[in-house]
Specification:
single chain, alpha+beta, 7-stranded mixed beta sheet, 6-stranded antiparallel beta sheet, 15% helix, elongated
Length: 209
């Protein structure tokens, strides 16, 4: 009986230690965008191609990797972050004023901005770290409006975007201006109407273009 009680006591002491030593994996917050229903939705996108024959464009709907701030702050050595489709083991954590750097198991560094209160994004240079949510092919309707925040002559930022018709937008998509920076630089927002048709495309200036 005493041996049995001793074994039970040992198990009671071991279980909390095993639980506390469990490896934590932090995953990005879920997006509110439904890839199967883009009606009345604003998305970030990359425009991959334009098909002149059927007047459609192929889009990658992209989302930034945002994480719960408290989960990031509680990371310990040996824990992991799920980013870009795989787990990354935390080998070291360095904390600074506005960001945290996390050294991966292959000595690569992940930088996480910490100036937000509730969510922290992973940074990729001057940009967020993005993942592809889905790829869709959508028509370019004749009433679509293109708002271009880039000066086509200089590539510089415009204080106010230039408004283009759908026809003008298609001409740009077809690459008639060889100096145009394109639509594949994480620099595009698209508004879909209640029928899940694109009605506004906005392109903004990015420093890495």
């Amino acid at each position: 009986m005493k041996k049995l009680l001793s074994m039970i006591l040992c198990l009671c002491l071991l279980i909390p230690a095993m639980v506390s030593a469990e490896r934590k994996v932090v995953t990005a917050l879920a997006t509110k965008i439904n890839p199967d229903d883009l009606s009345s939705t604003l998305v970030d996108a990359r425009i991959k191609s334009f098909n002149k024959e059927d007047n459609t464009m192929t889009l990658e709907i992209i989302i930034p990797e945002f994480y719960d701030a408290e989960e990031i702050r509680s990371l310990q050595i040996g824990d992991a972050i799920y980013t870009q489709g795989h787990e990354v083991t935390v080998n070291a954590i360095n904390k600074y004023d506005c960001f945290i750097t996390i050294v991966q198991d292959d000595d690569e560094v992940i930088t996480i901005a910490t100036d937000g209160e509730t969510v922290y994004p992973i940074q990729d240079g001057d940009d967020f770290s993005w993942i592809t949510l889905t790829t869709v092919t959508v028509p370019v309707p004749p009433h679509l409006i293109f708002l271009d925040g880039i000066d086509p002559a200089t590539g510089e930022d415009l204080p106010l975007p230039t408004v283009h018709s759908a026809e003008e937008f298609i001409a740009i998509l077809e690459g008639k201006n060889k100096s145009d920076p394109g639509f594949n630089l994480n620099n595009v927002e698209i508004v879909f109407d209640s029928d899940a048709q694109p009605v506004i495309v906005r392109r903004h200036y990015v420093v890495w273009q």
